[in-house]
Amino acid sequence: MPSSCEKLSSLPANFNSRLMSSSLRNCQLYLTQYGNAPNPSASACFPTSTAANPVDLPAATSTIYSVYSCLKSSGSVLCSFNADCQTKTYEVGAVPSPTPSIGVDLLYDGGFESGTYGNWSVPQSPNVPTELSTQNPHTGGWGYHAKFANINGGSISLTRVILGIEPGRQYQFKAWVRHDNPSGSVTTFYLYAYPLVGASTPAAEASLGSLPANTWTQKTITFTATSSWFQLQLSAGGQVSGNTGSAGGVDNIWIDDVTLTRLN
């Protein structure tokens, strides 16, 4: 159980409803942090309203302990395999075929060949127009494209949550990237795996200034999973080059063929 929820069992007795509400909120926020899929049985543990009488200390105490007890009995507070917490079932006597996973790409459509973002979450920035484009794919017919217009506030990100991960196993996250103006406004490209500490592109390798124009390069991070899920993120950032809005600082970036594989 996450520490913010485990704390519910160690709060002092007879706390007021304000402390009750903030404590429950902190626990509940964890369940959706990084796009997690909460286990429905855990979500049902929380009251629909915590607006209890501030002076009714026994009621607030009882609510806190009731939620904690419910969470403990719900099993995992997060889904491990899909957003509905469903697991596969088999007929009695049937033996499921093992699914190969070592060295197999675990990302569906990491090359955007469906012409859609699929499971990627792509926040839109008013300063950086983005699209899926048939222009300059690394392989296949599609890729991700963003245009940095050399103005302040330029950044883009693509994120997706991966479930069914085996803790203790080593994983490798890769993506191909290119841009057309080494002296332009796109300065960095990072790969992240949250909430793992240190699972990101080193700063020295994230710089795009030394990458020749219109040349594809592959960025890679390798890390060990610590839970049954993590959130992957691709992120590019920039700063104004020369005068704000000047054509000499405009830079286009393409991302394609994103993969995730288990190494052991």
Automatic annotation (TrEMBL):
Protein name: CBM-cenC domain-containing protein
Pfam families noted in UniProt: CBM_4_9
UniProt KW Hydrolase keyword: yes
Lineage: Eukaryota, Fungi, Dikarya, Ascomycota, Pezizomycotina
Keyword field contains Hydrolase: yes
Location of the CBM-cenC domain: 105-235
Keywords on record: Hydrolase
InterPro entries in UniProt: CenC_carb-bd (IPR003305), Galactose-bd-like_sf (IPR008979)
Residue spans crossing the bilayer: none
GO MF, one example: hydrolase activity, acting on glycosyl bonds
Organism: Podospora appendiculata
